[in-house]
Amino acid sequence: MPGIVFSAFGRNSLRLALLASVCAVAPAYAQTAEPAPDSAQADPAQTTPEEGAIIVTGARAEQRSSIDVKRNADVILDGIVNDEIGALPDNSVGDTLERITGVSADRFKGNANELSVRGLGPTLSFSTFNGREVSTAGADRSVAFQQFPSELVNGVIVYKTQRADFLEGGIGGVIELKSMRPLDYGKSRLQAEIRGTYLPKDDAIIGRDGLGYRANVSLVEQFHTGIGEFGIAIGYQRQDVAAPEDYYNGNSAFVPCNTSATNGTLATGTTAVLNAAGANSNCVVGTAPRTGIGETIGTTYYTTQSRSFRQQNTRELRNAVIGALQWRPAPNLDIAIDGQWSKRESTENRNILAIAEGLRGVKPIIIGDGTNGFSEGALVKYSGNSNIENQLELRERDERYKGGGATITWRPGNFTLTADGSFSDSHRTETQKATRMRSTTRVGYELDYSESPIVPRVTFFNFDVNDPAAFGANANTAVYARNRFVTDRKDNIWAGRFDGEYKFEGDGFLTSIKAGGRYSEHQRQLDNNRNNDVNTILPYGGMTVAQIIGNANANCRRGFPTTEYFPTTSTNLTSWATFDNQCLYKAFTGSDALPLPAESRDPSDLDVTEKITAAYAMANFRGDLGDTGFSGNIGLRYVKTNITSLGYRLPYKVTIDTASDNYTVAADPAGTIQTDTLKGEYQYWLPSLNVSFNLSDKVKLRAAGYRALSRSPIESFGAGIALNPQASGTGSSNIIFNPTSGNPNLKPMRAWNADLSLEFYPSRDTLFSVAGYYKWLRGAVISRSAGIPTTIAVTTVVDGGAPTQANYNVNVIAPANDPDMRHLYGVEFTGSHNFSWLPGILSGFGVNGSLNIAWANFQYPDTSTLAAYLDPENLIGLSKYVANGTVYWEKKGLSFRAMYRYRSHYYKPNGGTNRGVQDAGYLNLSAQYDVTRNVQLKLQALNITNTKDVFYKGGYDSIAEVSESGPQYYFGVRIRY
């Protein structure tokens, strides 16, 4: 991993210095150039074959180079490296990483996305590209690896122990993506590839054919000139594919209930009749039936405020470029510039059937009790009544990434001096246009998971869900038209570093010493919720509201978009009446799109700057302990972080009537948005020790002890305060606010770590290893758990007098660090072997696989009304079991590969009730054939098991979300010269 950074200057000076250093420093270095040792940053797998050696290619070459990387490392790591750009067989970098021991992924649109290492969630791993920190447009620090095309990346490495010169930030591990350095590659290469895609789920959509494509071209070239050697590597990829999905969702908040309506499916009648049936009330937890409500008290169950079935069409368009320029003006001077750019556009058309009132008139029929085949509290089968809605949405996301930097390496004598400057910038915007049609009356229904475990069967009584006329409610609030600027998120990182290393000659204990430092500035800006919502339809053009809605219903009807909805489940709900979103919007508003509000501020907006200064010193050593040779490194890293957070508070006005001793609180449209600036700071010393013992020429024992940290999610530092006042009350001296905010004083999670790894290398194509690790952790972020005493000023009017600014003492509820020591430990097994010793066709087989088992004792309490019924969840992203396995066969240019990945259930919060993800396994297949030395045919089949992503809240069978994207097929040709 490249060395680290030092600087002590501001943002503008830093940017100028990064650009100027390449031009200003290089000539001076070149004047004193001396013969250089081998490049320290050359690919570890890049070797020159000996005369007469058998040169392996394809899967076996990847397997061998990955074994070499692990064997030659001075820390515990695992990786997949291929010295040929575009040779990785996976569809994304995330898919490649999932083949590494102990690595698991969250799924997004059917592909691996955010990565976890050794059971710790995505936020506790740290990602770099060519050794540099990577910005992200997501809500936390986890990197969306889909922005890096696998065709333009030639290796990924996961460092599982720390070294003093590594960037801090990854308790779980440091994930490094590697791009090519053209001079180190040493060969000219022109490559072009095009792959068609076929998605059966997209083919089932009316008017679609399931087809798309991915295309890329790359060039690697070297030049020998009078001013030194030059190398260039550049690659471009374009992708235009569909990403359809079927969804079933519950509301984010699940609630406990124990009431049972007498006749909850009754949908019409007088108020008295509906009350007597229990059909006019939401379920609750009670000790006795409510007065005047027809209900009984029974077993507690968990249910949700709404349920929805969603069919979604998506188009994904992505362009990406990765390039590198390398100049070697003298043998001991190397100058490299690299850059990455990507633009991703996603368009989603959502067609939703919603049971909008999921708590109304609930009558349980089957409740899980832990012994009847369903988890305790799961509402497996029930009846009720609700408004039924067809909700339409158009969601558009534009995401751009650009990053790069320059590195200068100079080797005068025994010294190696490295200067590096870099930037990484991500920007995401999201917009939403939405409309709704509602059933003419409420509808009785029965929902049943017992015969369809994850996507339920639904029976609607006296209601044809496929009849558009049934969605004819025409009150002015029955429908809506919304135009929303949902998110504008910017994330950028500027960094500079300097490293110096001195290598000792001879056979002494110390082989080298190294020192350096790093300075970076990380800024996150977020602008949320600039909305123009029409929630009450107004008459226009001489039409009444009823006429407007009636005309929209008649003129905007559309057929159901697909011939299949959750075809591999047992649900009976496979279609429903639907409408054209844009047509409804124009009918309701008289406009194609109402203008979005000008940029405004609210408490959810943020502007956070994180400045990091780090310095380190380390020593590399080697020696003998009896007949056992050993080597390693010891070091100490110091890191200081300063956080500045700018937040906003909306104006309110408190009106007090002392005579009646009551008050009201309301938004103050004449007030001024308040700005609050909060700061945070922390500093830590991070020691590390890595030792490798050569027990024999085939057996290594590695040991490591180190301290590491993982920073809190950057958006948890927000300083905006949402006051959430009680609108009115008695006791004018006791005004009630329920303020919430972020917390810039959050500390990172810290961990002391111990690792052991025993590795057996019987041949170049064989590896067996077992590793154990133990982590003592402190400082996990617990959401909404700390009351921070704060004084706020609010406009106050007393007894009709003049407005004044009065101070109120409040406790702001904000995220806090868990003060308790937590423990995480585990063991991982890795195996890799090529059966070249078998006769004939069998010699083409090879296998590799891994298993990680992890345990932890974290406690993330539920923050919803289910808290009293549920145990706290374990660490975010922790799967007890993570496994992957690959079987391949290749001979004479023909290659087949099968890859299986498994991950047991884990905790993934999304607000409201704690949410878990059910265990899942995925099977991918690939084949390729070398028609000639220059032409290769490719075929891939992804997720052929059609595995779904299933989320639950309140218990394994209390389903919160199901998504199905279906199998994906790729077929193409690669031409290489």
Give keywords:
five-stranded mixed beta sheet; mainly beta; 2 domains; Maltoporin, Chain A; 977 residues; 22-stranded antiparallel barrel; disordered N terminus; Ferric Hydroxamate Uptake Protein, Chain A, domain 1
Radius of gyration, in angstroms, nearest whole number? 31 Å
- Kindly identify the CATH topology of the largest domain: Maltoporin, Chain A
Q: According to CATH, what is the class of the largest domain?
A: Mainly Beta
* Alpha plus pi helix count: 8
For the sheet with most strands, the description reads: 22 strands, antiparallel, barrel
| CATH 2nd-level architecture of the largest domain | Beta Barrel
Classify the secondary structure makeup into a structural class.
Answer: mainly beta
Give me the CATH superfamily of the largest domain.
TonB-dependent receptor, beta-barrel domain
Number of strands: 49
End-to-end Cα distance, whole Å, is 30 Å
Give the averaged pLDDT, no decimals: 89
Number of discrete domains: 2
Form type:
globular
Low-confidence stretches: 1-54
Question: Strand content of the residues, in percent?
Answer: over 45%
Portion of residues in helices? under 10%
